[in-house]
Amino acid sequence: MLMQATLPFEQAPYLDIANPEYSVRSPEVRAAREASWYARTPYGLAILRHAEMGQLLVHQSLRQGSHSWPEHNGVNEGLFADWWCNTILVTEGTDHTRLRRFLNPAFSPKTVRSMIPFFERLTNDLLADFIDKGECDFMTDFADPYAGRVLCYLLGISEDTAEEILSLSSDMGLALGVTYKQSLPVIEDATHKMYDLVEGVLEKRKKNPGDDILSMLINAGEGDDKMTHDELMNTGVMLVFAGVDTTRNQLGLGMSLFLDHPDQWEILAENPKMDMAAATECMRLRPTITWVTREAVEDFEFQDLEIAKGTTLHLFSESAGTDPTAFEEAPFDITERRGRNYGFGGGMHVCLGQIVAKNDMAVAYRLLSERITNVRANGKAEHLPDSANTGPTSLPIAFDVRA
Ligand code: HEM
């Protein structure tokens, strides 16, 4: 494909991404990407190609832009908006660096390696409950409890709490969809309950520390340089919120890809070492977080386009991951070595939990493919809108037990 010059703003394609019917994978988005590296949207700009997304993720004139999301949706108050606007995700500069310093060790490769036996045990336990039936709803029988129980394990709380945190984080997650305002009462109720839950766990950990992540955060730092109670509360809620819904949705999106490409499932079963490649390739083609947000902190020029201070940019990870200028015509193929995809964002705010998430998903796909074969759709799947944060809510599958 020939590189085209940047289109003048008025001539750039317009994508109505605030419309709940709109899909980030629609032919309209593909046509827009063919015509231009950016599009206009009701929120600001959409960035459609891989190269530009990579550059803008780390651009000095941009900050993480998710703080504007409540305002973009006409929501100016409430516990969710207050919490959201103080999370690590929207914190910048030295305050952000300080928080990452406390948090990074709890998510290091070494810490995550010690979790692998738990991920394996959990996958086998969940599978044992439905393998003899030859069918299941992949979301309710596997992805939901898996994501919920991993989070319980990280926080060192009883697995009995998994259902509650799953339901609360799903309800809070409605705030990141384009129907935020309509769902406000549900979102607020869930946020209050999540605060109560995290407060209870935090109090227990302060009295009786364990080897879970919250205890690590309480103990992190020296002397006066410690996380405050408010920071611990905000971060505790953030970890549940950021970790559960994303993982369940991403697992479901990955499984729907395998349903469409059963040959890839068999390749994984024969090559278990490709589990991480499989998890990564799923995220390239079907990222649950379909756009990552940035905001201009100053007027600047990028590829001949003037971008004014305050402009919101939505960096489209699915569009970047399927961009033919970066990947050519690249079908789902776990054996191919692909360039980087941006399902976990990038730059200073790159997903804190990405090593946990990559590993827990890799273990799940690996062990499931070892035990079941001939995976196929078994009825109609239900999905969240195909934009913002997306994924299946129901995914009925059938399979045979591998001999
Ligand atoms: C498949 C699962 C996951 C996906 C797809 C995902 C994706 C993302 C994305 C796209 C971002 C924003 C990055 C940016 O703006 O550049 C992010 C940030 C974050 N994620 Fe994840 N995530 C996942 C799992 C997790 C888990 C398991 C945790 C922790 C338990 C977690 C904690 C966080 C935190 C704390 C941030 C904010 C980081 C910061 O601003 O410094 N995530 N994630």
Q: What would you call the quaternary organization?
A: single chain
Q: Just give the CATH class.
A: Mainly Alpha
Instruction: Name the shape in a single word.
Output: globular
Tell me roughly what share of residues is in helical segments: 40-55%
Which class best fits the helix and strand makeup?
Answer: alpha+beta
Domain count: the total is: 1
Order of H and E elements: HEEHEHHHHHEHHHHHHHEEEEHHHEEEE
Ligand roster: protoporphyrin IX containing FE
Kindly provide the radius of gyration, computed on alpha-carbon positions and rounded to a whole number of angstroms: 21 Å
Strand content: 5-15%
CATH-level-4 superfamily name: Cytochrome P450
Enter the CATH topology name: Cytochrome p450
- Helix tally equals 17
* Total E-strand runs: 12
Low-confidence stretches: none
Mean pLDDT: 95
**C-alpha termini separation:** 47 Å
Biggest sheet descriptor = 5 strands, mixed
Strand order of the largest sheet: 1-2-8-5-3
Descriptive overview:
- The chain has 17 helices and 12 strands.
- With 403 residues, the protein is an alpha+beta fold.
- It has a single domain, classed as Cytochrome P450 (Cytochrome p450), CATH 1.10.630.10.
- It has a 5-stranded mixed beta sheet.
- Strand 1 and strand 2 form a beta hairpin.
- Helix 7 packs across helix 17.
- The longest helix has 32 residues, at 229-260.
- The termini are far apart.
- It binds protoporphyrin IX containing FE (HEM).
- Protoporphyrin IX containing FE binds at residues 64, 88-89, 100, 154, 238-239, 242-243, 246-247, 250, 288-289, 292, 343-347, 349-353, 356-357.
